[in-house]
Every structure is written in C-alpha cells, then in structure tokens.
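Subject: design request, 233 residues
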C-alpha cells in the first residue's frame, strides 16, 4: 500500500563511511539509506551528495539529509578535506591554497562512491557558497549526475560555459543584496541553463548559503521535493 511505502521511507539505515579522493585524502561521511531501498529489489533509487561550504562540516546538512531520506533518496553527507573528521592530512585553516583548491576532487570522489552503492541510480548534488562550485565540478563529465542545487555562489565565465554544456535541471538560490556580481551571475547562469526543470529563486536581503534555511522554513522541504521530482523522471 502507498501509506506503507511512505512509512518505510521515514526509517532506514545510517552508517559512517570512508572513501578516498584521487589525491589520497581519506574522506569521512554519513550514508543514509531509506528502508524502502533496503527491502526492495526495484533498483535503481536516486541518490544525493551534500557538499558543505569551506568552514563548516557535514552536520550543517543533517536536517536536509533526513528530509531527503523521508522522500526515498539515498544520501551521502560528508566532510571535505580539512574539515570535520576528514583531517588526516591536515586542517583546512593551515592548508596551502593549492591544496584547498583541489577540493573538487572530493566532490568527484563522493559521486563515485555513492554511485557504487547497490541500488543507487541517478545522483543529485547540493552545494552552498564554495560547495556550489564543487557541486558543479562534480557534474562536469559525469553522466551519473542528474540534478544540481547551487546556493548563493559566484558563477564565473568558465563555470557558465560548462553549465551551457549540461542538460540537467539546476535549482539556483540567490540573495538580492549579496554582492551584485554573485546575484547577477546566478541569474545569468539560469538564463543559459538548457533543462526546463531548472528553477531560480531570489531572496530579499544578503543571506549567504545556510542563512536561507533560517529565513525560509519551507526551503529545505522544497529542495528535497524538487530533487526527488527531478531524479525520478
């Protein structure tokens, strides 16, 4: 029955995982899998990778991850290099810029790891601020990535060019009073996005990244619903 399937999605497994980046970082994360995936032979199920911004860690996304799981999505929420538990080769604060700039490799490793899990099909990636840059990097040249959520980030000319090559839905979230360049770049990228499932939401104020969640309690459920809809097509 439909009600039983929905009830099962509210439960499931949650386990700590580790995986390796291409350049040798051991990355720590939480893999959440809905019960409906565990008990079902009907694969594949959509998955989502969460990419936090530079100076936070995976736990900033705990609530959104649970909302995703309730909707039947498999979620990998992890600490990028130098943050949270992923500090085996050093902390982000003391990391040389060239090492920090390799963080997109973490995003690619996360997509690869999640796609290797039994029952996982198309993957969405969520990223705020710098995490949005990493999310876009994870999507380039990766056919498994089927949707992106990019929050309050500056999209430069090179990134915009890459976006025009992608035919996947992208949910852009911007703030009116954030730097004009950031706000305008997101609106411009949205206009250049091919897929008709894409959305653009512009909030009043100068909120950055996770601040949007506090300003609008309906936003996290809206992101979870959008991701479920896009990856289920």
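Subject: RE: design request

Done. Sequence follows.
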């Amino acid at each position: 029955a439909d009600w039983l399937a929905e009830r099962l999605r509210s439960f499931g497994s949650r386990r700590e995982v580790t995986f390796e980046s291409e350049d040798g970082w051991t990355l720590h994360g939480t893999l959440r899998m809905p019960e409906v995936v565990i008990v079902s032979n009907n694969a594949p199920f959509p998955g989502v990778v969460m990419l936090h911004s530079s100076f936070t860690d995976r736990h900033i996304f705990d609530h959104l991850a649970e909302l995703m799981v309730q909707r039947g999505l498999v979620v990998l929420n992890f600490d990028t290099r130098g943050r949270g538990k992923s500090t085996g080769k050093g902390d982000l604060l003391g990391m040389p810029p060239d090492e920090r700039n390799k963080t997109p490799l973490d995003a690619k490793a996360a997509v690869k790891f999640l796609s290797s899990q039994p029952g996982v099909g198309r993957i969405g990636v969520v990223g705020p601020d710098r995490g949005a840059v990493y999310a876009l990097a994870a999507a380039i040249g990766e056919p498994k990535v089927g949707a992106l959520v990019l929050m309050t980030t500056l999209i430069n000319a090179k990134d915009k060019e890459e976006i025009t090559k992608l035919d996947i839905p992208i949910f852009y979230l911007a703030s009116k009073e954030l730097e004009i360049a950031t706000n305008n770049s997101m609106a411009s990228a949205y206009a250049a996005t091919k897929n008709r499932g894409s959305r653009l939401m512009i909030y009043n104020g100068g909120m950055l990244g996770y601040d949007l969640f506090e300003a609008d309690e309906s936003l996290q459920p809206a992101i979870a619903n959008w991701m479920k809809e896009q990856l289920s097509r």
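Residues 2-231 form a domain with the Rossmann fold fold (CATH 3.40.50.1820).
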